[in-house]
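Worked Example 4.2. Consider the chain below.
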Amino acid sequence: MIRQEIIAYVEQNILPLYDHFDRGHRRDHACQVIERSAQLARGFDVDEEMVYVVAAYHDTGLRYGRAQHHTDSARIIRADEMLREWFTEEQILTMADAAEDHRASTDHAPRTIYGRIVAEADRLIIPELIVRRTVQYSLANFPSLDYEGHWHRSLQHLEEKYAEGGYLRLWIEGSDNELQLQALRGIIADRESLRALYDRIFEEEKNKKEKL
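Applying the procedure from the previous section yields the following structure tokens:
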């Protein structure tokens, strides 16, 4: 059971940070990672409060930019004095390591089960959602690109990260992500299907952005 004071602190001080990030990393994303982390944690002997905190803080480093957000998230955990009200120094360092290890492009496996859990939870692989987040990120960060520019940038990202041989790694065997990743790879390999999905999502997201 997670202590109510921890939940209250996270909901009042940590989750609001996500309201200022790109549309693929807003509060709903953090809440999804928290929920999925809790589900994955049931299969392991872990501290559920630590799992909750790692999930809640995992992308907070985005406030300082995307490039080093994983290390910045770890730094935020280590620097948060309120966490010392509830956790030991060793637990705080473990949670910081887990946040730092969650990034998909990291060159090493997560050092602890907490890192594996949040990394897997962060990889919510639903093909349409992955394409939508790719479009959202491109529109938010490359406003000068025309439609074809967005398409080629997004295609490059999808191939580099999710296609066969891509850098994405899954860390918990038998998770739902395994089947979803295979489905996504099938779409990426079928350019006609991918383009049709991309075109629909791009128009939806562009129209949303224009209404803001």
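The two ends are 40 Å apart (CA to CA). The mean pLDDT is 93. Compare this with Example 4.1 before moving on.
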